[in-house]
Amino acid sequence: MLLVIDVGNTSIAWGVYKGDELINDFRTSTVKTRTSDEYGLIFINTLTHANINPQDIDNVIISSVVPNLMHTLPSMIIKYFNKKPLVVNSDLELGINIEYDNPKEVGADRIVNAVAAVEQYGAQSIIIDIGTAMTFCIVDKDKNYLGGLIMPGIGISAEALFMMTSKLPKIEIIVPDKVIQANTIGAMQSGLYFGFTAMIDGIIEKLLDELNWDKDETKIISTGGFSTMLTSDSKYNVMINRYLTLEGLKLIYEMNSDLDIAWLNA
Question: Annotated catalytic, 20?
């Protein structure tokens, strides 16, 4: 069994593969101050509750955009699973070429999503990850990762409205029934939802124009917590895959399973 772990700013998405099958997936809050022992108990107890014996985990791979946890979680894996995890970075075999000014600056989550998108859907792809931050990543037909865009996600924007204004309340993010709303909460929900959906389609349009790509020859994939809400009604043919990151982690592990993991993590 392979344990795959993606550490995001808000939550840790993780799961267990048995062969090619994702047999279970989980989500744990990202808390930078938690110790390796605290995370160890969370992982062990969660797996046990799901009827997965932690001793059956053969290998582990981790990607993270949270530097504070890049010692904590590998230490936890070593102590509680007796395994040395493979940690995603741009030096691994990825199946794509990272054409970035400094490849080491590319977030591990963006790398993992790009690898999964190319392997599963084909090159010439636009990958949209709608999480705490929202990212757009571009991979051309020659499997070159060209970069993309990074911007605040819808959750950050909702929190900013609440925190940075005097009278606007904290709200639930939902799909409104119409654009024009006659109350403050509805107006905020409408502004967030329709603002972000219009922005996503607008950025896709600009990317296709700048790249001179035909929309019918381009794979557009979305993932992340708000991907279904914000891309289901897109005017483009967006393929939603909430497991894209976990699948990318599995693929990267398979590409690098023969490497000396102890040396990689030194």
Answer: no
